[in-house]
Amino acid sequence: MTETEILRGAVAAFERGDMSAADYKKISGGFGTYAERGDKTHMLRLRLTGGEADRGRLSFIAGAAERYNASFLHITTCQTIQLHGLGADAVCALVDEAAEAGIRTRGCGGDHPRNVMASPLTGVDPDEYFDVMPYVRAADEYLAALDDKVKLPRKLKAAFESSDRNETHATFRDIGFVARPNGCFDVYTAGGLGVSPKLGLLTAENIDPADVLMHIRAMVLTFIEHGNYKNRAKARTRFMRDELGDGLYLAEYEKNLKKARGEGIKRVLAEKNVFPAADGAEPPKGERVFCQKQPGLYAVRWIPVGGIVTVKMMRSIADAVSRSRGAALRLVPGGGAYVINCTAGEAGEFLRLTEHDTAVYDIERSAACIGSSVCRSGIRDSQELLRNIIAAAKAAKLPPKSLPPVRISGCPSSCGAHQSGVIGFQGRVKKDTSGTLRPAFAVFVNGNGELGEERMGEAEGVIFSEDIPVMMAEIGKASAPDFFERYPENLAVARNIIAKYANAADPM
């Protein structure tokens, strides 16, 4: 029986009611698909290495969304694209069709190596140390091949960062490679968000980029030897450090690195990129247009609110990329994208195309998971909360920079990376004075993902969902016109306002 036949059998059994949702998830997750809330529709996650989508992949994604009547698409915080609202037959067909188009869904869920992440502007960013994309592609290919040969205790997330911005949170992933000014990587391991979050441990310094696969192999071997196969709640790589202690963990990693060196793993070589010719035109003005390090080429930022993309917009983006000389999409870990390698004329076209579907307020650049209206595991609706906060900010006529981007997760899994945000929210419930459980969110403040400034947000209390938009508008008024202009003073102001709402026994 082929893998696709296994999926088809599981989908059919689940649709008939002969398989529980929990048992179905154990099978479907490995194919990158999950049943949505209500069990009538499905989501399929498309693995885009380093968040990169060229014209061929974009054309496939837009066509698939149209052919199979997807409700919408979602750009995730791990640089993948999810198709939502699919029928059961569509999911099974798309797994094969995506593979034929060079897009994997295998390993996009379940206990598998996940999509390997990259700085979204790597290769074109004037401020980066070097282009990490060749190493990202090699790592993703290596992990995909390894996935058929080993069984991991839980998912494994890898990320590469080309600058100090640490947009991929490479310093707190299961394994992360951070580019340094000397052309080498520092390696961080056994970190992660979610329950019992940890910053990654600096595991190796100044490694030759050609050796990245040896370090990935060492991480995999260490995870297999010391990961917890019995308790899923304690099975991520960061829990190995609790069991072993950091000293013994590092010793075990070093032991497995020596073993990996003896296995003849290939070294990864840098690649020479080919870029389109500039058109010599005057580039458009605006804060969403960025000069690339290639003269005459530009990147255009596009951040659909909440990472939600309509099928119509995906088709428009795909068609515009197809008409270009060599533009491509690079997904942003916060739920947006850049269109890179644009000529000046093309940059203007993409600006116009996205001007009514992109963040204007800083709060609109917030990251949010898909939320409980869609996700069966979700506790609260992250997308609804974000929409309500934005509506409150606009109703209060706040200046665009009065509120910072926030991060929202609908449950403890931290798919919205709430623990890394200046302000973060995690879906919860809270009792009112009558003892009734009401929708609520735990609030975290002062998280930071920037290199050298990493810290997890501090829990400030639990607030009723209906109070949060009003609370955020109050924070925005107190912080206007620019939240970060008086930072950390405005953070202290925000804490005081949050405390007032967190201490409320009933919605205010």
From TrEMBL:
Residues 110-258 form the Nitrite/sulphite reductase 4Fe-4S domain. InterPro entries: NIR_SIR_4Fe-4S, NiRdtase/SiRdtase_haem-b_fer, Nit/Sulf_reduc_fer-like_dom_sf, NO2/SO3_Rdtase_4Fe4S_dom, NO2/SO3_Rdtase_4Fe4S_sf. GO terms for molecular function: 4 iron, 4 sulfur cluster binding; heme binding; metal ion binding; oxidoreductase activity. Keywords: 4Fe-4S, Heme, Iron, Iron-sulfur, Metal-binding, Oxidoreductase. Residues 38-101 form the Nitrite/Sulfite reductase ferredoxin-like domain. This is Nitrite/sulfite reductase. The lineage of its organism: Bacteria, Bacillati, Bacillota, Clostridia, Candidatus Ornithomonoglobus.
